[in-house]
Specification:
single chain; about 400 residues; alpha/beta; Aspartate Aminotransferase, domain 2; Aspartate Aminotransferase, domain 1; 2 domains; 7-stranded mixed β-sheet; 4-stranded antiparallel β-sheet; 14 helices; 11 strands; disordered C terminus; binds pyridoxal-5'-phosphate
Amino acid sequence: MKTSTSLVQSDHACGDPWRATATPIYQTATFDQDSAEEFGRYDYSRSGNPTRDALERQVAMLEGAPRAFAFASGLAAINAVAGLLSPGDEVLACDDLYGGTYRLFSGLLSRRGISVRYADLTDEKAASAAISPRTRLIYAESVSNPLMRICDIRFLASLARSRSARLCIDNTFLSPILMRPLHLGADIVIHSATKYLCGHSDVTAGTVATCDDTIAHNLAFIQNAEGAGLGPQDSYLLLRGMKTLDLRIERQQRTAERIARSLHARDDLDGVLYPGLPSSPHAARHASQASGNGAVICVRTGDSGRSRRVVESLSLFPIRVSFGGVQSSASLPCCMSHASIPPEVRASRHFPEDLIRLSIGIEDPGDLLEDLTAALDAHPRGEGHASTAESSLHAKPAITSASPCS
Ligand SMILES: *Cc1c(COP(=O)(O)O)cnc(C)c1O
C-alpha cells in the first residue's frame, strides 16, 4: 500500500467498540483496572494512551519502522534520544543545526557529562577525522537548517557502524514523504512534528522512530520515566493533520520548485539555497537519497538590511519562526530560529546574516511569486546603508534572542 493510501486508511484506534472513523481523543489520565493484580493494556496516560498509540503507529508506518514514539515537542524528542547516552559519551554533530538543537546540545548535554563535537559532516574526510573512540552518536539533519547542506546519509551510517556508534537523522525539513533515513542505514529518525507532519501550525510535537529493538525498548522507558510524551488532544490534532501530509507536500513542493527557479534567475540576489537547484553543491547526493526537494527556500539578498526590508514588505509571508504549515511564512534565521547560537559561533561558521528563509505553503503559486517579486523589486540592492540596517536588525525587540518564540 502506498503512503497516501495508508495515511487516510489506517487512522483508527484498534479495538474502539463503536468503530469510530476518526481516532477518538482518550482525554483521560487514568484507566480503571479489573483488579489490584490484573492490569489492562492501559493504566496511566504518561505510560500509554490509545490516541497517542494510534499516532505512534501511524508515524511508524510512515517511517517504515516497527516502533515510533511521540513527544511534546521536537526538542523533547531529541532530548529523549540524548537520554540514550551516558556520561563520558560523545556526540559528533553537524556544524549546521537548528538553533534549539544547538542550545540543547551545548547547554544541557555538557552538564550531563556528554561532550558534543561539531564538524562539517557533509565532508566525508572531516567526518572521518572528527569521530573519536568516545563517539556514541552521530547527529545530522537530512537537509540542514538553515544552510540547506546535505550529508551523505549512507556514508554516515557506515561510519557510525564501523565505530559502534549510532546515527540519528533529523528529517524535519523533508518529512517521511520525501526521505526515509532508516532505509538509508540511520538507526534513529526524529522529526519536529510541529512542522510538516502537523502542517497547520496548531501543535508542537516531536517523533522518534527506530528499527532497533534495544533502542526502542530504551526510548519507551525514557518516554515513561521523563513524562514528556504527547498528550491525547495534540496526538489527535497531529493524526488529523497527517492525513493530508502527502497532498500538502506535493503541492508545497511543486510551488517551491517554481519559486526557487524564478528567484534563481534574478541577478540581484547573492544565492538561492534549495536542494533541487543545479547550483546546489550536493544536488546529486540529495537526489540519490531523497525523492524530492521540499518546500523551504533560503535566499541571500546581499545585505541584512535589505533582507529585513524585504520580509517586512511581504504581504503573503508573515514573519514567523517555524515552517512547514499550509500558510507561507518568512523568517530571518540569524535573529529568530538561530539566535540561540552565539554571534561569534555563527560568525566562525560563516552563517550569513542576510539569509531569508521562506516556507512555501499551499496558496496559489502565482500569488506567492508576485508577492516575492514585488518585495524584492521594491527594495533593490544598495538601497539602504548596510551597517545601520545591521544594527537595527539586531535591535528589533520582538525577535531578539530573548524572545520566547525563538
Ligand atoms: C523546529 C525544529 C526542531 C525543534 O522542534 P520543536 O518542535 O520546535 O521543539 C528540531 N529540528 C529542526 C530541524 C527544526 O526545524
